[in-house]
Amino acid sequence: MFTGIIDETGTVESFLRLPASWRLRIGARGILDGLALGDSVAVNGCCLTAVERDGTGLAFDVLDETRRLTTFGELAPGARVNLERSLRADSRLGGHFVTGHIDGTGSIGVLEKRGQDHYLRVQGPPRCGRLVIHKGSVAVDGISLTVAEVEGDAFAAWIIPHTLAATNLAGRRAGDAVNLEFDMLGKYVEKLILSTGT
User: Fold this and answer.
1) What is the third-level CATH fold of 8-85?
2) Spatial separation of the C-alpha atoms in residues 119 and 158, rounded to whole Å
3) Residues 74-114 pLDDT 10s
4) Residues of the chain falling short of pLDDT 50
5) C-alpha 46, offset from chain centre
6) Do 8-85 and 104-196 have matching folds?
7) What is the Cα–Cα distance from 152 to 140, expressed in whole angstroms?
């Protein structure tokens, strides 16, 4: 479980095919403090298990299924990725409940400065709009954002300067693919309604 509040950004050092999986190596600093092998880390919003670590970074095994369902197939050395350690029971909940299980990918339609603020518009996958509500929460590459607009399967959010500086959004451009996780409560409500036929 995560909150969508990014701890730091790391840099992809390598993403190699091994006999049993892909091995993703990321250079990082801050999140290494106290991190143990087997701990969960959200990488661009996707929950992965740390299988290696040293003083300059950590590594994860990534399955073909994960590469297929996320934007990981596009990761290359030098890419900046959002990193978040899993939530502790005694931690503050600053964002919203994020599971780290990606629902689908979207595409940035607009990311631009408007006045003193930055505006982000994302086109989500087909039929995702039913899970997004005005003033609700969505995780974009693991970043907890408040939805400002919803139009069909597209939604928008305003980005504060801290979020822009502390995440990989500063290097993103229109057309870039992003991982999306929609609010867990909305998905449960939808399943309950569909299962009862009401």
Assistant:
1) Elongation Factor Tu (Ef-tu); domain 3 (2.40.30)
2) 5
3) 999 999 999 999 988 887 778 898 999 999 999 999 999 99
4) none
5) 6
6) yes
7) 17
